[in-house]
């Protein structure tokens, strides 16, 4: 197992006291797999990514029974140890890639910085040429053919898709073991979105790197992922092989997200309304007791005020007192 997270809790102070924004989240990513974390906006997906990378500010209190990358405890690294891992063995790409590119440097200059001296083998006087070759190779790997034009361009001259390709090129410069993609296509048109997802799938196939994909668009990623984890308001609802969860969702939240996706409504007429999950995700000041989906769940019963434990059911793990379709798995 490459990444192992057990009972990750992230809390912060609010006007109503300390609140667990993430509530005992467990998540595992195996070597060489694409694992997608799916949930509505504000569900805590990006907090998990930033906890892995160590990007959270001191106002967040991070606790976990286990937050390990391979055999390394990520919660107990000093600054030097973290620099040796983050950006090398673990890399991350973000939504709105343009805002993470330096507006004062050309793309070539920025990618030059991504190629470290330790990655070069030529003598000192030939390193500049070797570095340029590596930058050109990176651009070609992410599907940019006109490398000279791109290397002399600035961030403001790029489309959203091109900017994200540059961020991906920078992230894979060291061939990381784990790439975290935090909603990398949220600001893009559908065609560009699919192009970026296909690119990530191709890089995964070519290098065998693991990808933790973070998305709220279930329909866009289902063809590229091997495992799914569904998160709602800081709680993991269901996790398991993508084909199993898509065929027979056992948690009401997984079922609701599928029902709101074109995946199940390919034959809908133009301008027809998709089904929606009633209500809205709760604010930090008004988090429900127990299962946080309870107020929006049509299957909720009094016992749901008690937080369900994430338990294994054959190929999946599930946190629900009244799961769906499980009896069919035992027939």
UniProtKB/TrEMBL annotation:
Subcellular location: Cell inner membrane
Annotated ABC transporter domain residues: 3-258
Any GO BP annotation: peptide transport
Principal location: membrane
The organism's place on the tree of life at top rank: Bacteria
Keywords, ordered alphabetically: ATP-binding, Cell inner membrane, Cell membrane, Membrane, Nucleotide-binding, Transport
Topological type in the membrane: Peripheral membrane protein
GO MF annotation: an example: ATP binding
One GO CC term on file: plasma membrane
Family the entry assigns: Belongs to the ABC transporter superfamily.
Protein name per Swiss-Prot or TrEMBL: Peptide ABC transporter ATP-binding protein
Species whose genome carries this gene: Aliidiomarina shirensis
